[in-house]
Model the fold of this input.
Amino acid sequence: MNKYEIMFIVKPDMEEAQIKKEAESMKKVLTDKKAKVIEEKAMGQRELAYEIRKYNTGYYYLFVVEASKEAEQEFSRVARINENLLRHLIVKVEE
Done:
């Protein structure tokens, strides 16, 4: 198991309950692949450095997880096809 930091940005034009539901569904993608979520942080709405799909802000989330390569790849695959996510970034943390 490797340790990863996963950050993703959810579209800001959704209701707060929908945004939280979206974050939970992304967490479920990881836990379904036997990943262990060590830390979960909702960073709130922030301004983007540049416009993405005509949005200037987004809701940021950070997960620190211990996961297999397969879980990381599945999260990335789902994040790419999820229209409610603007961006995602996965960084492998070296011990």
Notes: The first strand starts at residue 2 and ends at 10. The domain at 2-93 is CATH 3.30.70.60 (Alpha-Beta Plaits). The chain has one domain: 2-93.
